[in-house]
């Protein structure tokens, strides 16, 4: 068996070795200098053009507009009626009466 306490000779400090040599030491020193700068930038956070609350409001409005457009288009194409009639409360009352009558 091999003795695990055996010491290996140190690697020569040449440019070919990836973890030794002057170039690696310079890169490591440069990374160590940049480390505090990166952390300071990361702590500041990301600046958003539109805040999240504004995005939620915009998405809600777009959803409502697309729902109304879909109701008008579907009622006029498939229902063979005037598209804006779908926005009348009497249309919805008639629909609710039809649903409740089948119970």
From TrEMBL:
<feature type="region of interest" description="Disordered">
    <location>
        <begin position="1"/>
        <end position="45"/>
    </location>
</feature>
<dbReference type="GO" id="GO:0000428">
    <property type="term" value="C:DNA-directed RNA polymerase complex"/>
</dbReference>
<keyword id="KW-0240">DNA-directed RNA polymerase</keyword>
<dbReference type="Pfam" id="PF11772">
    <property type="entry name" value="EpuA"/>
</dbReference>
<dbReference type="InterPro" id="IPR024596">
    <property type="entry name" value="RNApol_su_b/EpuA"/>
</dbReference>
<keyword id="KW-0812">Transmembrane</keyword>
<keyword id="KW-0472">Membrane</keyword>
<keyword id="KW-1133">Transmembrane helix</keyword>
<keyword id="KW-0804">Transcription</keyword>
<feature type="compositionally biased region" description="Basic and acidic residues">
    <location>
        <begin position="1"/>
        <end position="11"/>
    </location>
</feature>
<feature type="transmembrane region" description="Helical">
    <location>
        <begin position="52"/>
        <end position="78"/>
    </location>
</feature>
<protein>
    <submittedName>
        <fullName>DNA-directed RNA polymerase subunit beta</fullName>
    </submittedName>
</protein>
